[in-house]
Amino acid sequence: MKKIIFVLCLLMVFIFTACSSDVEEENEDKIRDLEFTVVDEQDIPDVIKQKIEESKMEPFKFSFSDGQYLYIVVGYGEQPTGGYSIQVKEVYESEDYVVILTELLGPSKDDTVTMSLSYPFIVVKTEDLSLPVYYK
């Protein structure tokens, strides 16, 4: 029962974590770069894994705070083959947002890739500044 309540509380955090894409230019001016870590798949919190699994068919973006860290998640939906990677170009604090810029990198023509569908995503962990996330 306690586990169910805990999961429900975490899901509520998902719902109330702001994810905005309508930002005026002046609001995304960089104050400082944020240190971040790309989270290994085995270290992703279960509640985030569940949300990724539910969302992976289409591109998605969401954030999750555990009270200490902010997890920023970006998925690029279904891709026709393996061999895709995601590059984090920037993570920084602005006056009103935590701003993240990622880029999907496809396999090169010389790469040997699996000929099965893939669902590339990335989970970035940074300090929780209690700011909404802006995805560039």
Automatic annotation (TrEMBL):
Pfam families membership: PrcB_C (PF14343)
Origin: domain of life: Bacteria
Signal peptide annotation: 1-20
Domain PrcB C-terminal span(s) in chain numbering: 70-127
Keywords assigned by UniProt, alphabetized: Signal
InterPro entries: PrcB_C_dom
UniProt keyword annotation of Aminoacyl-tRNA synthetase present: no
Protein name, UniProt field: PrcB C-terminal domain-containing protein
